[in-house]
Amino acid sequence: MPNKARILDGNLESEIDDCVNALRAGSVIGIPTETVYGLAAIASNSSAVRAIYAIKERPSSHPLILHIAETSMLDDWATNISSEARALCKQFWPGPLTLILHKSDKVLSEVTGGRDTVAIRCPNHSVTTKLLKKLNNAIVAPSANKFGKVSPTTAQHVVNDLGSEISIILDGGDCSIGLESTIIDCTTTPPQLLRTGAITSEEILRECNITVVAASGESRAPGMLEKHYAPMCRVVLVGSSQAGLVEAQRYVADGFKVRLLDLTEDLDKFARLLYSSLRTADKDEINVVIVVRAPMSGIGFAINERLEKAANSFL
Ligand code: TXA
Ligand code: MG
């Protein structure tokens, strides 16, 4: 379907005004963040929030992340905030960290899927911060892709996926991190890691002296599915480039169109390019992408988590 979205880079004040007006009128727009592009609606309009679920084709039981301009807005949207949560905001916001907190009365039930907790983050992207400040409200924003598919890390990805269904896409350039935010549940003691991301438990311990444990019990982040981040092509994981070559030969012999991806030399670059590499493989009609797993350190945990889910999607 043809693109109908206006692509704005937000350099002009009037463009930010257009986005603010669209959000206030209940429209859903594409916005950049440092992690991935988001599909944004104003947090105080339930029909706008519901429109996100419809456009994404996402089950309404999967709650959304509320995005705020600065830490000072936190107390509008959350209550009984623990000292650990305060310390995490102070250290890591604005940045790729989402906290699960007890929601305030102001949070709509459409945002949380009826839960009494809410996910909140303060993104680190100048254009989106400008937009949030001018809006003087919060937005909710899941990744701007169809449910279960690969998240977008460029404005063009959003055009490709949703350009026929939304009115504006704010182009803030390529996402500098490229993987979704780390999610920490701060309503439990000790806090639990619900989704890996650029900020790791090790970094949290080092910087804030807070111990974060693995999520336990029933899946606490609805949407943490075994299959996710799925391209069309099959993703096969290997431990080394050498092993990748052997696998590649096997698939080529079976008549498949194969690509080998080894970005293990530079993990930040691996994270930044992972989703666009999978999207390019689909565009090039590759059948099998063989990816060398990241070493388990820093953002390597998050890269491998996404890769495992992408690989599972084909099973
Ligand atoms: O980096 C990001 O976080 C991006 C950008 C756009 O900010 N957003 C993003 O949103 O990844 P989304 O909707 O794709 O992922 C939201 C995750 C889901 O896995 C959901 O289950 C979890 O947050 N979540 C939201 N509210 C929650 C709650 N109250 N309790 C537990 N998990 C929650
Ligand atoms: Mg997503």
Q: What does this entry look like structurally?
A:
With 315 residues, the protein is of the alpha/beta class. The protein has two domains: 6-214, DHBP synthase, CATH 3.90.870.10; 234-312, Rossmann fold (3-Layer(aba) Sandwich), CATH 3.40.50.11030. 35% of the residues lie in helices and 18% in strands. It is built from eleven helices and 15 strands. The strands form three sheets. Strands 2, 3, 4, 5, 6, 7, 8, 10, 11 and 12 form a ten-stranded mixed β-sheet that branches. A hairpin with a 6-residue loop joins strand 10 and strand 11 (192-195). It starts with 5 loop residues before the first strand and ends with a helix. The model has no long low-confidence stretch (mean pLDDT 95).
N-C termini distance: 29 Å
CATH superfamily heading of the largest domain? DHBP synthase
Total helices: the number is 11
**Ligand set:** threonylcarbamoyladenylate, magnesium ion
Sketch the topology as an H/E string, one letter per element: EHEEHEHEHEHEHEHEEEHEEHEHEH
Q: What proportion strand? A: 15-25%
Task: List low-confidence stretches.
Answer: none
Helix content: 25-40%
Shape descriptor reads globular
CATH second-level architecture of the largest domain:
Alpha-Beta Complex
Largest sheet: 10 strands, mixed
Give the integer mean of the pLDDT values: 95
Q: Kindly state the number of beta strands.
A: 15
CATH class of the largest domain: Alpha Beta
Structural class: alpha/beta
As for the CATH topology of the largest domain, it is: DHBP synthase
- Number of self-contained structural domains: 2
Radius of gyration: 19 Å
